[in-house]
Amino acid sequence: MPFDRTPSISTYQTKQLSLVAEMNSRASTPTKDVDYLNCFPEQLKNKTTKQQDISIRKRSGCTTLAILAAGTIRGVYFWEDRAKAYVVIGDDIAIYSMPGGTLDTTLTSVFGTSTGEVGFTEFLYEDGTVKLVVTDGTTLSTIDTANTVVAGADADMPVHLPQIVFLDGYLFMVKVDTADLYNSNLNAPLAYTAGDFISSEMIPDRATGVDKLNNYIVLWGNNSIEYFWDAANASGSPLQRNDTPIKLVGLVGGIAHHGNKIYFVGDVNHSEPSVFVLEDFKITPLGNEQIRRFLTGAVASSIYANIISTDGHDFYVLHNGSYTFALELETGLWTRWGFAQTASFDII
Q: Which residues, in sequence order, are bridge partners of residue 200?
């Protein structure tokens, strides 16, 4: 029987287009190739069937919480137990009740400076009292629940980085332009003794940042990260160095603490900076090529970061002075956030 159908050649093909790709750009501006703005991928997984669906969600909006006084905002701290937000504007601290943003009071002339970063930490005394400790690097003060400010006047307290850490009844700080990590007297954050410090010595660099990870003090330098633990020494610093987990990554900026992890911007041997995460003694790079290109031209003093939780997701949000990027902590995907008609979403 003869063949009675006309042969045909079809070029039709169905292809699925992926909505999720790694954000990337060939330049240092987000104008080429893949760029996500004010959205993020959401990954839904079925634990039984292992089926996975991905959707694109827009980021949450924002609203005005409070109208602040004119001036430069130098830092913000939320004291959770008091449900109060402490906003440093110039040399004053405005205290707002949360939620609602109602101004409670303003503490005036708390600091000897009116510009630069301000550091905060809560300090637990042996009698169970908790006070807020604030510093601009030269003026160190405590604030109690009655908003009473007590300024330290100890000549042995060094001029320090505006980063302070509480551990086991001590307050720790880094003396500027040194590798020295100073501690207060026990249960006395405003009192200091000459010689009570320990130095980072494994790499010949200057200390540039300090934080706490689990029961360790983490000390960053220009080229290294060293770990210290409380050895309860009878004199001098109570700390002892742990020599094993030293990391050869220097700090650039953008420190943000989340659980038992610390996210930050750093570099290896002064190469192009990237984003890293410290978890216990493990360090992992998280920045892709585009993030490194954006960070390369950034000034260290303009790099800020924080952890933001919204829509069931946690983000490491990084601002480099020109653009703002958000890293979804579970998927590890970067997107870009902007505010109103600007290219950045400034955070402090």
A: none
Helical H segments across the chain, by residue range: 289-296
- 8: burial class by Cβ within 10 Å (0-12, 13-18, 19+)? exposed
Amino acid at 336: R
**Which element (helix H / strand E) includes 193?**
none
Q: Average pLDDT for residues 164-171, to the nearest whole number?
A: 97
Contact 21, 334 (CB under 8 A): no
Q: Where does the pLDDT of residue 323 fall: very low under 50, low under 70, confident under 90, or very high at 90 and above?
A: confident
CA gap 107, 63 in Å, rounded: 26
Angle at 119 between CA 285 and CA 189, to 5 degrees: 120
**In sequence order, what are the residues at sequence separation of 6 or more whose Cβ sits closer than 8 angstroms to the Cβ of residue 242?**
216, 226, 227, 228, 229
Tell me if residue 3 falls in helix, strand or coil: coil
- Contact between 339 and 345 (Cβ < 8 Å): yes
20: pLDDT confidence band, cut at 50, 70 and 90?
Answer: low
Look up the pTM and report it. 0.87
Which pLDDT tens digit goes with each residue over 197-221? 999 888 888 999 999 999 999 999 9
pLDDT digits (tens, 9 = 90+) for 218-233: 999 999 999 999 999 9
Q: What is the pLDDT of residue 206?
A: 92
Count of alpha carbons within 13 angstroms of residue 213, beta-carbon side: 25
In 3D space, the residue among 249, 348, 340, 333 whose CA is nearest the CA of residue 54 turns out to be 333
DSSP state of 69: P
DSSP 99-167: TTTEEEEEE-S-SS-SSS--EEEEEE-TTS-EEEEEESSS-EEEE-TT--EEE---TTSPPB-S--EEE
Q: Which pair of tokens denotes residue 97?
A: 């009740």
For strands 261-267 and 324-328, give the pairing. unpaired
